[in-house]
Design goal:
By secondary structure, the protein is α/β, with parallel strands linked by helices. The protein is about 35% helix and about 20% strand. It has 2 domains: about 190 residues, inorganic pyrophosphatase (n-terminal core), CATH 3.90.1640; about 120 residues, Roll (Diaminopimelate Epimerase, Chain A, domain 1).
Length: about 325
């Protein structure tokens, strides 16, 4: 696939979807694609399907057009899925993928097995948003589209500090900045600013944290009861695992939070020696070498023990 425009030829209807519990890269890349189509291909009927997005992203153009419900049974000429490594991560929107005349997947997860008709999969890219930047004509990237792409890149690179950041990433960011976006406000408002409740739950997670493998791993878990006490939702927990990761001397960080069904969402980050994507994929999750996630059942202490054993094996191979 050389560009997005070529995929839109002879298309009358398009569905755009991303992974469940959408993060900045998922929201940014999907809205960038939606805004590109609605701006430059007005003859195409486009719909975007995502679960409810965090409020910090609602300043992006057409965020109010996102469909949170997949109740209609519409069949589309084309379904574009983004930032999603497998159909199981599409949630209810998977039905639009299954019934579409043609499917496209744009993603940077190493666990992606190229499940669509057309695939643009580059695990070395910083973000799916960076891939969207590559697929659009630069002269057609409006300020509003640039804001969407920039949000996605900022969130998946940790404001350009993670190892996935490349010269291509920084060059793309420069082009986006030249579109007139308020890049410093985007970073401050969507990445750094936290509510009082978010800061409290971060503090609780840090208090709950423990070191394992002689200090090589740090892990913490928060329960449903703790989340209710501080009035936070899963979408408010972004950034906790990254804060654990920067603890001096650790090779990997593990953060768990309890889902309503009492399973545990597990986020893992590596400082380089551990391949957390390999661990996540072993337990039916996915992600990247240095950032991955999975949902697991059981006691959180047992889950941490299982993951620590996997990390220990890698560190001694």
């Amino acid at each position: 696939m050389k560009d997005l425009a070529s995929q839109l030829a002879q298309v009358k209807t398009v569905a755009i979807a991303g992974h469940v519990r959408p993060d900045g890269d998922c929201v940014g890349s999907c809205l960038a694609t939606y805004n590109y189509i609605t701006t430059w291909f007005p003859q195409i009927q486009a719909d975007i399907y995502l679960e409810p997005i965090p409020n910090i992203f609602k300043f992006l153009k057409n965020s109010d057009k996102i469909c949170n419900s997949c109740e209609n049974d519409k069949e589309y000429d084309l379904c574009i899925v983004q930032d999603c490594g497998e159909t199981g991560r599409l949630g209810a929107a998977v039905k639009y993928f299954q019934t579409a005349g043609k499917t496209v997947c744009i993603d940077h997860h190493v666990s992606n097995n190229s499940f669509a008709d057309e695939n643009y999969i580059f695990p070395e890219a910083s973000s799916t948003s960076e891939l969207i930047f590559e697929l659009l004509e630069q002269e057609r990237i409006t300020k509003e589209i640039a804001e969407c792409i920039y949000v996605g890149m900022v969130h998946d690179t940790g404001v350009f500090q993670y190892s996935c950041t490349s010269a291509r990433t920084m060059n793309a960011a420069g082009v986006l900045m030249e579109k007139g976006i308020n890049f410093s406000k985007i970073v401050d408002d969507t990445f750094y600013t936290k509510t009082f409740g978010q800061n409290k739950i971060l503090g609780q997670a840090l208090l709950n944290s423990r070191l394992f493998l002689q200090g090589a791993v740090i892990a913490a878990a928060v329960t449903q009861e703790e989340m209710e006490r501080f009035q936070v939702l899963p979408k408010h927990l972004d950034g906790i695992v990254s804060q654990l990761r920067v603890t001096k001397g650790v090779e990997a960080a593990i953060f768990l939070y309890e889902n309503e069904d009492h399973t545990w969402k597990v986020s893992m980050r590596s400082n380089g020696k551990a391949d957390v994507a390999e661990i996540a994929m072993k337990y039916h999750g996915g992600g990247h070498v240095r950032a991955a996630g999975v949902t697991m059942q059981g006691d959180p202490e047992r889950i941490i023990e299982i993951i620590c054993k996997e990390i220990e094996r890698q560190l001694h191979d």
